[in-house]
Amino acid sequence: MESEVVPCTLTPTSVAAVAVKVRQVTKIYGAGETRVRALRSVDVDIARGQFTAIMGPSGSGKSTLMHCMAALEPVTSGHIWIGRSNVTRLKEGRLTKLRRDKIGFIFQAFNLVPALTAAENITLPMDIARRSPDPVWLQQVLEIVGLADRLRHRPSQLSGGQQQRVAVARALVARPDIIFGDEPTGNLDSRAGNEVLALLRYFVDVLGQTVVLVTHDPAAASHADRVLFMADGVIVDEILFPTADAIMRRMLRLSEGHRGPSTPSANAC
Does residue 84 lie in a domain region? Predict the structure, then answer.
């Protein structure tokens, strides 16, 4: 029998300020005895121009939720909007265009093409789409991520932190509406990871970018404006303006099996 969980009542977000809207989204893998309900009627709004982190134990559904929001996986039921587009109703051709034009991706594996230079990797998605990046914006991105003297280097000639900064620049160069990061600091040491997180924080604070980050690291999540906590396929809590200590305390409660929201406070459900 599937366990019951109590979804959190989330902080309301005005319609005009919503970058992603998720309504009653369920995701099921397999059938019969192998059937797994990864998401269970999830409702959440992702605020525009903010940094949101999603956390939870292994198998909680956090990566599945991000992949569905990013239109990388279809939902079993429910609806997801990115801006005004209901991505759950789009055919593959329009989904491909939406992902290319509206969404940036940063993954734990840098996903760079070994034979291409840093510059070629950064502009690759736009090259495939036969579009030219705005040269002023491209130069600004390169300055922000600190790659001006590494553009002719191939991935094998770059450190892990530098490779991830190439991936960050690639995600930003098309000026997407939202950037999704799936454990983007998971393969980096603490110094390089903090540099990447500082870049994402800069994009939000200075450029008005919307960032959604899936992570298991409380220190990484503490860079966010809001942390959503998942367990058993539902969102069970949130913290606004989080600290690493507050995040660790809530994760400990989840690991001990406490599925309901933590003691009410100004920063939690």
Answer: yes
The CA-to-CA distance between both ends of the chain, in Å, stands at 27
Q: Does 262 fall in a domain?
A: no
Quick check: 175 and 109 in contact, CB under 8 A?
no
Using DSSP, state whether 220 is helix, strand or coil. Answer: helix
pTM for the complete prediction? 0.87
And the tokens for 194? 């903090």
88-127 pLDDT per residue, tens:
999 998 998 888 888 999 988 888 999 999 999 999 988 8
Q: What is the total count of domains within the chain? A: 1
- Looking up residue 203, the CATH number of its domain turns out to be 3.40.50.300
Q: What are the DSSP E strand ranges found in 183-265?
A: 210-214, 226-231, 234-240
**CA–CA separation, 230 and 39 (whole Å):** 10
CA distance 243 to 159: 29
